[in-house]
Amino acid sequence: MPLLCTGTGKTTLSTDHNRYLIGDDEHCWSDNGVSNIEGGCYAKCIDLSAEKEPDIFNAIKFGTVLENVVFDEHTREVDYTDKSVTENTRAAYPIEYIPNAKLPCVGPHPKNVILLACDAFGVLPPVSKLSLAQTMYHFISGYTALVAGTEDGIKEPQATFSACFGAAFIMMHPTRYAAMLAEKMQKHGATGWLVNTGWSGGSYGSGSRIKLSYTRKIINAIHSGELLEANYNKTEIFGLEIPTAIEGVPSEILQPANTWSDKKAYNETLLKLGGLFKKNFEVFANHKIGKDGKLTEQILAAGPVF
User: Fold this and answer.
1) Residues 6+ apart with CB under 8 A from 166
2) What is the pLDDT of residue 126?
3) Which domain-ending residue is among 90, 107, 124?
4) Could you give the CA distance from residue 79 to residue 89 in angstroms, rounded to a whole number?
5) Average pLDDT over residues 195-202
6) If you ran DSSP here, which 8-state letter would residue 230 be given?
7) What confidence tens digit (pLDDT) does each residue in 88-106 have?
8) Pathway involvement (predicted)?
9) By CB distance 3.0 to 4.6 Å, which of 44, 135, 142, 274 could disulfide with 162?
10) What's the CA gap between 12 and 269, in Å, rounded?
11) Tens-place pLDDT, residues 131-154
12) How many helices (H) and strands (E) does the chain have?
């Protein structure tokens, strides 16, 4: 069950032959399990190809709505590489256009809650196992980076924080939703994970985007239970537990510091992002969660430590 902001890869990662699909966004977690309330997917299709994402490519047929794409008026052939209108080209299609869609769109209680972030600073690990307090901290923070193609007018990446990964849509205080999530996770034995689909080896402009094939293997390792049995090391500043090895993923990329040639720049960037997290969380610091407020203390302790 992924929780995330736009541009992090939710549609691409949720469309996978290894799992049934109940939806790429807008899920409800009730006493009976999870369900989707959209009935379809809203995929980015810039540079889309049958080789990279065959299910999404083949879902674009009669009944699919395309936005901002450029096509030949005579042949009606779409040029998915054309960014002349915007990089944020989209395809909206019914869920049944995906071969392994599960109909009706319902599922059991999740055993994994995956927070997706696109870290353009390049300092968050590709995957981290989170404690319950860390899950709540990062859920309340809702960090990702706005990059070209996800928001109008964005040319360079910008750190952004959207509480509960959807601040524009929530009615109650973010900490209320965090407490609800924690209660569900404890009751059903779910593990929290932070998966970074952003940059490695440097920030945006100097590093490179983490390969989709690696992220897919990470997601598969989470669901198979492989990562619950892995050995872990803890990172500095954020105190994240990162696995030492994942089958099919180069071990050196699991620890971001290993991928930066300029270690001083890495440390400075890590401190910068940590500072942004702390500044963003100041507004939540005095809001008590739980009758005695102890949970608030645990969440604050789960953030960056300098």
Assistant:
1) 5, 142
2) 98
3) 107
4) 11
5) 95
6) S
7) 899 999 999 999 999 999 9
8) Carbohydrate biosynthesis; gluconeogenesis
9) 142
10) 28
11) 999 999 999 999 998 765 555 555
12) 8, 18
pTM > 0.70: yes or no? yes
Residue with token string 């872990």:
232
Amino acid symbol at 297: E
Residue 52: inside a domain, yes or no? yes
Beta pairing partners, 185? none
Q: What are all long-range contacts of 13-20, with beta carbons under 8 Å and residues at least 24 apart?
A: 13/116, 13/197, 13/215, 13/216, 13/219, 15/41, 15/43, 15/53, 15/55, 15/56, 15/98, 16/216, 16/219, 16/220, 17/55, 17/100, 18/220, 18/223, 19/100, 19/223, 20/100, 20/101, 20/102, 20/107
Q: Which of 105, 104, 128 is nearest to 116 (CA)?
A: 128
Does 128 share its domain with 242? yes
Same domain membership, residue 146 and residue 258: yes
Domain boundary among 107, 125, 142: 107
Across the chain, where does the E strand assignment appear?
A: 2-4, 27-30, 33-36, 40-44, 65-67, 70-71, 78-79, 90-94, 106-107, 112-117, 127-130, 143-146, 158-161, 191-196, 199-200, 208-209, 232-234, 241-243
Would you say residue 77 lies in a domain? yes
Query: CB neighbours of 207 closer than 8 A, spacing ≥ 6?
Result: 122, 199, 200, 201, 259, 260
Reported as a single tens digit per residue, the pLDDT across 206-242 is 899 999 999 999 999 999 999 999 999 999 999 999 9
Report yes or no on 187 lying in a domain.
yes
> Do strands 78-79 and 40-44 pair parallel, antiparallel, or not at all (unpaired)?
unpaired
How far apart CA 241 and CA 233 sit, in angstroms, is 6
Q: Are residues 190 and 257 in the same domain?
A: yes
Residue appearing with tokens 């892995």: 230
pLDDT in tens, 233-289: 999 999 999 999 999 999 999 999 999 999 999 999 999 999 999 999 988 877 666
Residues in the chain: 306
Whole-angstrom Cα Rg for the chain: 19
Give the domain range for residue 78. 2-107
